[in-house]
Each structure stands twice: as structure tokens, then as C-alpha cells.
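Order emerges. One example.
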Amino acid sequence: MFRSLIARWRGRKDQSAPGDEPVKVVLGLGNPEPVKVVLGLGNPGKEYERTRHNVGWWLVDHLADVWRFEAWKKDGEARVTSGLVHGTRVRLVKPLTYMNLSGAVLRPYLRRESWSPKTDLLVVVDEVALTLGRYRFRAKGSAGGHNGLKSIEGAVGHQEYARLRIGIKPDDERRSVGNLSDFVLDDFGKGEATVVRDLFPALTEAVELWLKDGIEKTMNTFTGEGSGPRAKGPGKD
């Protein structure tokens, strides 16, 4: 009886229609289509919208507007929007986890075999060591005491991911930062926000170059010493 059932099962298994192809099931990889991720660091909530710590969110909001991406939507622990930039699929990400847990939003991307933080991730972050009006692209490096970057590093397991640091240090040397936590969570002073936003057209060009040619060429072209490629401007790191 048992042998008869096995034989019947084998017969049914072998009766496939001509031309049938085996179906491959891939679990846990999500959308396999290549995607570049631009992650803006910041804190959720209206009370943080205008703070120095949220300039990463400011830039990705600007990019979404310039590139005319779809409306922002909640996806897991982040708000995201996606679209094509000169044929490259891009996803803009704003973590909803608060700064020190930002790396959690990268989990879905890290599960993809074809996605690498070394080439497919750009993190946008505020930098208190750079004066207002300055910015700096880097291919890798330490977190420099920034809790958001510490979380990103913990998630990816190394320091080799591109980052864009945007200066928030007062350009008036008579002004001190004081308590760092209070400083970064405070709103920009009068006129300071305008200085930051004036960088956005150049930074948009720079991010588009990163999408096309990678971080090394972007670093060499956009030096961070002014508003455009290889522009020279005042200020010290």
C-alpha cells in the first residue's frame, strides 16, 4: 500500500507540461532591483524640524522636491520616497527612530545580496567641527562622536560608507558651542539656516555626481570650500 502511494506521487510529479520551467522562490530579499540610498539623519517631531541636528532631513527633503519624487510614506521605521535620477533608482530615507538608533532603518537593504553600503549608501549628517557654509564628502571614517553615525556603523559593521557632513558651527569665532547636546538640538540662529540652504543647489549636483560616478570623484570635485565644484571660500575646519 505504502509503495503504491509513493509510485503515484512520483508519477504526478513527473507529469509536467512541456516547456514548464521550475519556479525559483527567493525569500527575504525584498525588491531585487538595484537602488542607491541617500539617508538623511535627524529626529522626528515638529520640535526638531528647525534644529541643527536635522540638516540631513533638510537636504533629502530638498532632493525629493528637486527630483519630483513621489510623496513621502512610512515604511517600517522610516519615511521614504523613491524615483529615478538620470536612470538610476534612488530611495531617500528619513529614520523615525531618533538619532541614536538610525542604523535600524538599513536592515532591509543589508539583506539584499546585491546591495553594498560601500557603494550604494550616502549618509547626510550635521557636523559641528565644520563652520556654517562648509561641507565635506568622505568615503569612510569614524563616527567622530556623532550618535547617528555610531548607529550606522553598528548596523553595517564597518566604517566604509560614504557620508556628507554639513557644517553647523557658528562662523563667528566669538560664539562658543557650549554644551554640545543643547547646541545641536537648538534651532539655528537668525540667518544661519539660510547659509545652510544656500548650499543645497551645489549639494544636489554633488549627490547626482555620486549617483553617477561614486564617492571618490565626488570628493575630488566638490571640496566643500564654497558653494560649487572646487569653489574656494572662507572659513576653517
